[in-house]
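Predict the 3D structure for this chain.
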Amino acid sequence: MKIALILPYFGKFDNLFPIWLHSCRCNSEIDWIVFTDDKSCYDYPDNVKVHYINFETMREHFQSFYDFKISLDTPYRLCNFKPAYGELFADYIKGYDAWGFCDNDMIYGDI
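Done. Predicted structure below.
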């Protein structure tokens, strides 16, 4: 089964981010798809796919799916859209059997 977990994150990752990446590396059968504007140099494992994008462009992308004005003034409010990630990120999760969302404050064991 091919699984993708989606993480949009804007701003600088905290000092625990390398540990999060290591926990992703230890679960090589899962892909993490990260959308971020943090271009700091990290040792990304092969199963972490990074897409550099700014928050304004992400917000415009989300807005394009709706014919009413969405409320997405800060990156924190991305959490309100998690149930729609399957549609909003459909182009990135093609070919996966399952998808989900995650946060970078979770350290994964053997999934």
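The helical segments are 17-25, 55-63, 85-88.
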